[in-house]
Amino acid sequence: MPEPPFSGLTPPSAIHMSKQFLLSAAATLMTACLSAQQVQFSTDLDQQNNVINWNVTTSVGNVNVSPSNFRVGGSVEVKLDTASAPFSSGRLNGAIAFTAPDTLNGTIPNPIPFLPPLATFEIRDMQFHLSSSVFSIGPNGNFNAMVTLTATSGTNTMGGLFGSGTEPIFGLGSDPTPVTGQVTQNGSTIQFHLDLNLAVSMDDPGSGVTVDISFTGPVDAYTDVSEANSMHLDLSMPTLSGTQANFTYINAAPNSNVFLAGSLAGLGNTVIPQLGVVLNLAAPIQAGMDHANASGSGQFQVNIPANLAGRSIWAQALQAGRTSNVAGSWVQ
Fold first, then answer.
1. Range of the structural domain that residue 145 is part of
2. Residue 204 and residue 102 share a domain
3. Within this chain, do residues 74 and 176 fall inside the same structural domain, yes or no?
4. Number of H helices, E strands in the chain
5. pLDDT band with cut points at 50, 70 and 90 for residue 164
6. pTM (2 decimals)?
7. Do 320 and 213 share a domain, yes or no?
8. I want to staple 306 with a disulfide (CB 3.0 to 4.6 A). Which of 87, 95, 216, 242 is the partner?
9. Whole-angstrom Cα distance, residue 177 to residue 256?
10. Residue 162 has what pLDDT?
11. Residue 308, SS3 per DSSP
């Protein structure tokens, strides 16, 4: 029997004519459109050039932000109808995106200059997930999508005259918002572009201060046509503590063992020599194992301890010589 891939790693104590005809035709068309999104890509975000401006408004005053912009790194999960251009439809189905720098600050100045600020806040270690409904892609690669951003980890620390405290920001998200973009191919390189224009709202329960944060700017990500049908993992958002959660995966090697790595520490690099892969997780443990079906799909059934409530979690599927995307969620 081969050595378990995570041997030597210690687990922590905690882890959707007639009216009837028209309706039927519409349903058939939608099903066909949805089923057309068969080719999974995991794209790498161009952190150096993805510069996002952010602005903040609050219920108690104007905000000075620092820095005035930040970069976005990580990866974005995209499903397309074909493995290479021309593309006709697509969908966003995940991301593990983060800000650089990892700390964003804001100050609400006191109208009396010599008095302390009305409020300060510090957003630290924010990571987020991106999703969309199916969108059509034009002959030139342009598309319009309804995009939702959801924070999967990070904290917000409030201070100033309205009191202080630190609260997690996971679960905070934007409403589905129209976003323009483009998918193009140059040689074997596929570029995915979004003109990001999203807003997230926060409420501090202690002070009653409401905060609206807008993010605007270009987001570019790249992959290669050889990465078509990449292995993909989905986590439920949120994941419920004290329950058994089902985490699904696709595009594994058919009829083979697949392992699930989990982490409470976030992103990192961990070599798993038994499988010849490097996980993009810090301090991973083996959280599950499954045997992929003939199409390379399956699910992990994971017991979520009650004492993980209030924590962010990260996971990645792996098998010999290959890994999935990193997926993030939180436990409530």
1. 37-227
2. yes
3. yes
4. 1, 22
5. confident
6. 0.88
7. no
8. 242
9. 40
10. 74
11. helix
Would residue 25 count as lying in a domain? no
The two tokens of residue 87 are 């593309």
One domain, residues 118 and 176: yes
Contact 253, 322 (CB under 8 A): yes
* Region of residue 317 (left: phi > 0; alpha: psi -120 to 50; beta: else): beta
Total count of residues recorded for the chain: 332
Exposure string over 8-40, b if 16+ CB within 10 A, otherwise e: eeeeeeebeeeeeeeeeeeeeeeeebeebbebb
Task: Tell the residue number behind the tokens 């986590």, with chain if given.
Answer: 235
* Residue among 312, 311, 313, 315 at smallest CA distance from 326: 315
Domain of 309, CATH number, reads 2.60.40
Q: Is residue 167 part of a domain?
A: yes
Q: How many domains does the chain have?
A: 2
Q: How does strand 69-80 pair with strand 51-58?
A: antiparallel
Residue whose tokens read 């501090």:
204
Whether residues 158 and 241 share a domain: the answer is no
Tell whether 31 is covered by a domain.
no
pLDDT in tens, 57-110: 988 888 999 999 999 999 999 999 999 999 999 999 999 999 999 999 999 999
What is the end-to-end Cα distance of the chain in Å, rounded? Answer: 37
Condensed to tens digits (0 to 9), the pLDDT of residues 115-154 reads 989 889 999 999 999 999 999 999 999 999 999 999 999 9
Q: How far is the C-alpha of 327 from the C-alpha of 287, rounded, in Å? A: 14
85 lies in the same domain as 209: yes
Last-in-domain residue among 200, 227, 254: 227
Report the relative pairing of strands 89-100 and 119-132 from DSSP bridges. Answer: antiparallel
Contacts of 140 (CB under 8 A, 6+ apart): 182
Query: Which residue bears the tokens 């219920």?
Result: 59
